[in-house]
Specification:
This protein is an all-alpha fold and 119 residues long. It has one domain (4-118): de novo design (two linked rop proteins) (Up-down Bundle), CATH 1.20.1440. Helices cover 77% and strands 0% of the residues. The protein has helices at residues 8-24, 35-54, 59-85, 91-118.
Length: 119
């Protein structure tokens, strides 16, 4: 069992989730159960799946949860793009968040590759 708190990728995913929550506070009230909820859930799912994978018993299980985290990162990236296109996020804020998500995706890909190589 690995401690997710020790993983830099988990720390970055957690930080990105906190940022998503901060920036989505300004979304329209009518989006509370729509885009606001979706982008928050997908962002939180990245770090949550990394953490859950760490609690599993094998590298294979861990790798599967990292793949799920990767999917959640892609979903979050799309939601950020949609929020920008709808005018809920500025171009600068969307670029900032997208850069963070891309970094997390690169780190997840490297970790998945390492796990696959070790098997």
């Amino acid at each position: 069992m690995k401690d997710f708190n020790d993983l830099i990728v988990w720390k970055k995913a957690h930080h990105a989730t906190l940022e998503i929550y901060k920036y989505t506070r300004g979304f329209p009230v009518e989006e509370r159960f729509g885009l606001t909820s979706q982008v928050r859930r997908s962002a939180a799912s990245i770090a949550a799946n990394i953490a859950e994978g760490c609690g599993r018993g094998s590298d294979g299980d861990f790798g599967r949860f990292l793949q799920i985290a990767m999917g959640s990162a892609s979903e979050t990236e799309y939601h950020v793009r949609l929020a920008k296109d709808l005018g809920f996020l500025s171009n600068e804020t969307a670029a900032h968040l997208t850069n963070h998500i891309h970094e997390i995706k690169r780190m997840l890909a490297s970790l998945i590759k390492k796990l696959n190589a070790d098997r």
